[in-house]
Structures are given as C-alpha cells and as structure tokens.
Automatic annotation (TrEMBL), chain A:
This is Ribonuclease H2 subunit C. Pfam families: RNase_H2_suC. Residues 94-118 are annotated as: Disordered. GO terms for biological process: RNA catabolic process. Residues 98-108 have a biased composition (Basic and acidic residues). One of its GO terms (cellular component) is ribonuclease H2 complex. The gene is RNASEH2C. It comes from the Eukaryota.
Automatic annotation (TrEMBL), chain B:
Gene3D superfamilies: Ribonuclease H-like superfamily/Ribonuclease H, Ribonuclease hii. Domain 2. This is Ribonuclease. It holds the Pfam family RNase_HII. Transmembrane segments: none annotated. InterPro entries: RNase_H2_suA, RNase_HII/HIII, RNase_HII/HIII_dom, RNase_HII_hlx-loop-hlx_cap_dom, RNaseH-like_sf, RNaseH_sf. PANTHER family: RIBONUCLEASE H2 SUBUNIT A (PTHR10954). It catalyses: Endonucleolytic cleavage to 5'-phosphomonoester. SUPFAM superfamilies: Ribonuclease H-like (SSF53098). Its EC number is 3.1.26.4. A divalent metal cation binds at D34, E35, D142. It comes from Orycteropus afer afer. One of its GO terms (biological process) is mismatch repair. Manganese or magnesium. Binds 1 divalent metal ion per monomer in the absence of substrate. May bind a second metal ion after substrate binding.
Length: 169, 298
C-alpha cells in the first residue's frame, strides 16, 4: 500500500491462513446494484436462485419488487477469486498459544521473520469460498462492458505492468 | 380452466383464450372488458374480455350472467362451464399479470402505475380479439374512478369501434358480467394453485382474501417476511401494506436511484465567497471510474 496509509494499516496485522485457500469450495456469487444495510446470512438458494430466468439477451430476476438484469462475469485468467472472512478476536486468542508453537513449521518460505502474536494487533483471515465467475446484476438494465467492476478487474494486470522492473539499457 | 402455462412460469404475464367462434368472424360482435384482483396485495391481477355476436346477446343474457362479485364461487364456476358449452357463439381471452410483473412495473425507475398498466392491458386484449379476426363493433368496459378519460383513450385507440366505459358496467351489460366471471374464475384458480418460486419453510396456505385490510392477510404477510429478500414473489411489493411491513420487519436497502435530496444541505451564500480550504486529495480518475479505493483496514 501507499506510504501514506501506514498509520491506518497499523490497526491490525493481517495474517492469511493459507490452508483455507486450498480447501475453498467454489461458490455462486451475485453482485447486486443495491446495498442491503445489514451483514447477515441470507437464504439465496431458497429465494433468489430459483427466481432467475433466462430471457433473450439477459438473465432476469427481481429483488424487493424491482427488476434486475444480469450477466456472468468471468474473473480474468491470471486472478483467482476468494471470499475472505476475518476470524473473530476470540478465535485468534484461542489459537494463540498453539499457533505460536507450530508457527515455525507452518511457514515454509522463511521470508517473514517470526514475530510473537499480539492479542489486539494480529488478525487472521481465511477463505470460505472461491470463485472463477460471478453474476453481475444491474437495476433494470444489464451492466454491460462499462460496469465499474469489470474495469476494476483490469487493475491488477495494469498494476503488475507499471510496477515491473524496466531493464536499464 | 387450464392455467398450466402460468403454473410453469408465473414471474411475468400469461395470455389464455378460447378458440374464436366461427360466427364471430362474420357477424358484428359486442365485447366486454373487466378485471379481477386489482386491489389485493397478494397474487395476480387478471384482465378478461368476453365477446359474442350482437344477434346472440339475448342468449348470453339468458344464461343469467351477473356481476361476479354478487355470485358465489360455485355459481361462477357453473356459469363459466355454461359459457364453454356455448363456445359456438361465445369467446373469451384473458391476460394474467403476475404480482411480480405488477411490483416491478410500479417500482421501476420510470413508474408505470396500476392505472396505465390496466388500461394498456385492456387495450391489448381488445387488439388481440381484432387480430384474431373477431368483428368487434361495440366495446363495454368496467372502470374504477374516472371513466371519461379512459373512454377517450380507448376511443382514440379504436376509432372504428363504439367504446363505452362505465362504472358498474359489470352489473349493467351481460358481456361485461361474462368477462368479470372469466377474470374472477381465473384469478381464484391462480391464487389457489399458486406455484411459489421460492422454497418457503412451513408455508401457511391460509392467506385470507388477499386484501390489505384483511387481518388474516396481514398476519400471513408478517409471517412470511424474510429480513433480506422481503416477501416471496406472490406478494405485490409495491402495495403500501407490504412496504410498511418491510420497513418494520426487514433490513433496509438502498438503491443507486434512491433519493439523495436530503443529503444536500444548502450552503450559506457567503460561503461561496470564502476560500474553501484544502480539498481532500481524490484518487486518480482511473480508480474513481472503477470504484476502486485503497484499503487501509479490512
């Protein structure tokens, strides 16, 4: 990240549980053109998925009485999609003692210096699902090639290109 | 009535019709339009037309058709069966508008209100009869509210036909009574055999009359709210009763076209003459256009 973000990013030290990436099962995801002002599980399989219809030129469904038209977006081949969840602090603490003992053996690359975990500072994230494609929904119209998220998916390859070492002549 | 097409897919609209009696191609016909299920918060709205030759109107009258609201369910079924027996001179067609179609029309970016939807559906059915070669010369339509404007609109649409729009037409003209019976029979059957798109847990089949002021209907609505998805598609989300239950019992949702008016606080006029101070540095346009922000925390 930028140097200007250092202060804020010090709030947590994020660790990834790498094993969860290997075990992540593919999931079906839907990106809706609205915000549900809550963070909770939803019965997508009972309410939403069975209501999707294939109409000429687009998928169609409705949410809260409004019509959505959608299409499938494929994640660029060089990228992999994961649904990440941060472990609760309690889970970090519970695993704190054990983790520290086994830490040395878990890390194979040895690039990172082993540091002791701190209860308020260290957090673990893990993948709960993976995806290579997802459904993108627009309010009444298909989002199409100009959709923001399609543009966003082009950033990683551009970022890689502009950060590549240019050989000096 | 065979509603299997609707039962296969009840997310849109569905048109059903009888074969056109041969005599209706040759003789001038009178056609009635009526609807059932306009008010309820549950289930589809059904528009129906019924037509017969002017020369056979007395025979239709002899069936003792009446406003469907004054008849019991079994009387309506019996009369509809009689109309089927008289298929050599009576024809009908109907349009079932699913609650999902009603909700999505009324809650669209461009609002398509129930009156316009009704008028267009009625006009569509008259046109359908004409397209099928029915020699329509007179049209009678039941209306709610202002009949004058509606009549003017329909008359403009069908200049060659004599259009009469009248309140209580379903009680005054036998063809409209017959249409009201077709509509009501179809609506009742559609509601009774509704195929829920959703998989609902312990679904309660007793939803009362479906009218918003029926306590049973209200209780049913409250029981079947999902905090995220709201209601099953059987419910008309655009009804005030449904909306107010959602406001209380479901999570809030904001759409990209949700009004942002109250966020714009008018500034003091003098503020336009003062230096604004340092503006926050916005990310490059590339990132703004793609909705990308740098994450500093997760």
């Amino acid at each position: 990240m930028d140097s200007g973000d250092e202060e804020a990013s010090e709030k947590y030290r994020i660790h990834l549980r790498p094993a969860t990436l290997r075990d992540a099962v593919p999931a079906t995801l839907h990106l809706l053109p609205c915000e549900v002002l809550a963070d909770r599980p939803a019965p997508v399989g009972r309410f939403f998925t069975p209501a999707i219809r294939q109409r000429p030129g687009a998928l169609e469904v409705s949410f809260r009485g409004r019509i959505l038209r959608g299409e499938e977006v494929v994640v660029p081949p060089s990228l992999a999609g994961y649904v990440m969840v941060m472990d609760e602090k309690a889970e970090v603490l519970a695993g704190l003692g054990k983790k520290q003992e086994s830490r040395g053996s878990e890390k194979g690359d040895g690039e990172e210096e082993p540091q002791p975990l701190e209860r308020d500072f260290d957090r673990f994230i893990r993948a709960t699902a993976s995806f290579a494609r997802f459904h993108l929904w627009g309010l009444e119209t298909v989002p199409g090639p100009d959709a923001k998220v399609r543009g966003a998916l082009t950033w990683p390859s551009l970022a890689a290109a502009i950060h590549t070492q240019v050989p000096e002549d | 009535m065979d509603l299997s097409e609707l039962e296969r897919d009840n997310t849109g609209r569905c048109r059903l019709s009888s074969p056109v009696p041969a005599v209706c191609h040759k003789e001038p016909c009178v056609l009635g339009v009526d609807e059932a299920g306009r008010g309820p918060v549950l289930g589809p709205m059904v528009y129906a037309i019924c037509y017969c030759p002017l020369s056979r109107l007395a025979k239709l009258k002899a069936l003792k058709v009446a406003d469907s609201k004054t008849l019991s369910e079994s009387e309506r079924e019996r009369l509809f069966a009689k109309m089927k027996e008289d298929r050599d001179f009576v024809g009908w067609a109907l349009d079932v508008l699913s609650p999902n179609l009603i909700s999505t029309s009324m809650l669209g970016r461009v609002k398509y209100n129930l009156n316009s939807l009704s008028h267009d559906t009625a006009a569509g059915l008259v046109q359908y009869a004409l397209d099928q070669g029915v020699k329509v010369t007179q049209v009678f339509v039941d209306t709610v509210g202002m009949p004058e404007k509606y009549q003017e609109r329909l008359q403009q649409h069908f200049p060659g036909i004599e259009v009469t729009v009248k309140a209580k037409a379903d009680a005054l003209y036998p063809v409209v009574s017959a249409a009201s019976i077709c509509a009501k029979v179809a609506r009742d059957q559609a509601v009774k055999n509704w195929q829920f798109v959703e998989t609902l847990q312990d679904l309660d089949a007793d939803y009362g009359s479906g009218y918003p002021n029926d306590p049973k209907t209200k209780a049913w609505l409250k029981k079947h709210v999902d905090p995220v998805f709201g209601f099953p598609q059987f419910v008309r989300f655009s009804w005030r009763t449904a909306q107010s239950i959602l406001e209380k019992e479901a999570e809030g949702v904001t759409w990209e076209d949700s009004s942002t008016e109250d966020q714009e606080v008018p500034k003091r006029i003098t503020s336009y003459f003062c230096p604004e101070g340092p503006r926050p540095r916005l990310p490059h346009r590339y990132f703004q256009e793609r909705g990308l922000e740098s994450a500093t925390t997760l």
